[in-house]
Amino acid sequence: MNAHRIRRLLAGAGLALCLLPWPVPSLAAGPTAKASTKAVTKAALQPQPVVRNDIQAGQSAQAVIDEALRPQAQRAQPRRLDVNLPVQVSFETGDVLGLDITPDGKWLAYTRQSGGYNELWLRSLDPALSVLPRRLAPALADRQSPALSPDGRRLAFVGAEDDVKGDIYLLDLSKPEAQAVKLTGRATEDAAPCFSPDGTTLYFQQRGEGEQQRRIVALDLTIGLASPKAQPRVLDTRGDAASPALSPDGRTLAFMSLRTGTASVFVMDLSASPAGNEPRKLTPGT
Q1: What DSSP assignment string belongs to the chain?
Q2: Segment 226-264, tens digit of pLDDT
Q3: Arithmetic mean of pLDDT, 153-168
């Protein structure tokens, strides 16, 4: 133990000793001071009543001394907080820009930068399943905003090979040889797909040519995608709306909007009647 550490321990112990309750007699003043010195000294040596607060203070000071003099190895260690610590699951050379995970936590879809484009990859997070990450729908174009269906069998994403503004694609992951199916055309700018909790409906944002406001549409996936009836249905969000997200029960839709001049979060009840599903603003702003 070096001299610096010894000085610190002694200083701590000295400070703690100062906190101990010591009876302090009141000295008499005036001509009788000398005569009363012996009496005062004798009174100081007599047992003095100690109140409970003094006892507690003495015990606290003693605990400080004991802790200061205790060897480092025997001191109580700080308690580790019960929190969920993040675990790194990807080790990519390029930046990871977007991701989605299945509700059971077994599959992760993500995009990464490589060779000048954003590639789409699928990775298993199941410790019982050891498979290599698989690249999906390779193309010389960007893939963005991956969205996995709740059952993990389908993947929606934004592709830019036919339209730089972005189109929505759907890929069947249960068939390794399947090709991505394009769901939208060049007439619109499409982005931010997400599935309903039951996987039957695909929501995404859309904006037509020359339009300023964005809108949210819903596509019924139970109808054959080749059917003329498979057309997105526009939701009445009462203004600009983008980046849809569904509640676990599928009854509430959350979205971003610039209708107030700043980006804010709104929610609306999809199960209510048209007159009762007025969007409600959640985040502050002007």
Answers
A1: --HHHHHHHHHHHHHHHHTS----PPPP-STTHHHHHHHHHHHHHS-----HHHHHHHHHHHHHHHHHHS-GGGSPPPPPP-----------SS-EEEEEE-TTS-EEEEEEEETTEEEEEEEE--TT-----EEES--SS-EEEEEE-TTSSEEEEEE-SS-TT-EEEEEETT-TTPPPEE---TTEEEEEEEE-TTSSEEEEEEEETT-SS-EEEEEETTS-TTSTT--PEEP--SS--EEEEE-TTS-EEEEEE-TTSS-EEEEEETTS-TTT---EE-S---
A2: 666 678 999 999 999 999 999 999 999 999 999 988 999
A3: 95
- pTM here is 0.69
| Residue showing tokens 């930046």 | 95
> Is residue 60 within 8 Å of residue 18, measured between CB atoms?
no
Neighbouring-strand partners of residue 212: none
Burial 16-50 (b: 16+ CB within 10 A, else e): beeeeeeeeeeeeeeeeeeeeeeeeeeeeeeeeee
Residue 86: the pLDDT is 83
Token pair for 135: 């690249």
Tell me the C-alpha distance between 161 and 158, whole Å: 10
Is there a contact between 246 and 257 (Cβ–Cβ < 8 Å)?
no
Which is nearest to 16 in space by CA: 54, 73, 83, 67? Answer: 67
- Whether the per-residue pLDDT at 57 is higher than 80: the answer is no
Cβ–Cβ under 8 Å, residues 234 and 217 = yes
Which pLDDT score is estimated for 29?
A: 46
Res 40: pLDDT:
46
Strand partners, 110: 99, 121
Tokens 């107030």, residue located: 260
- 249: tokens are 């029960």
Would you state the structure tokens that stand for residue 131, as one six-digit string?
């498979």
